[in-house]
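Predict the 3D structure for this chain.
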Amino acid sequence: MDELHEAYIATGLPCEWVVTENVMAGSFESGVCRNSENGLNTFATQADLDGLLQLNEASPETGLFLVGDLWVVGSENPEDLLTAQTDMGGELWPADSPFFESK
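Done. Predicted structure below.
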């Protein structure tokens, strides 16, 4: 989790860091940036990560994520995810989100 947080702030996005209870279904470790609603989560297995994405897809209010290798950055601000993706890699989810298509 520390490496994920360091990679996140290396993108230039601010993050006053707080480790939290695992707030996302199936997450191994979770944390949130107190100065925004952005959250960072790691997962023990790909099945846990896939389960979160499936659960979210079925939700009436689909979240926006940057998805990497057993990690997820969640944000209500698509621009933050686009900025993070530049250095962290990963894929924007859901890829067909109008929030990402218009950028």
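The longest helix spans residues 46-58.
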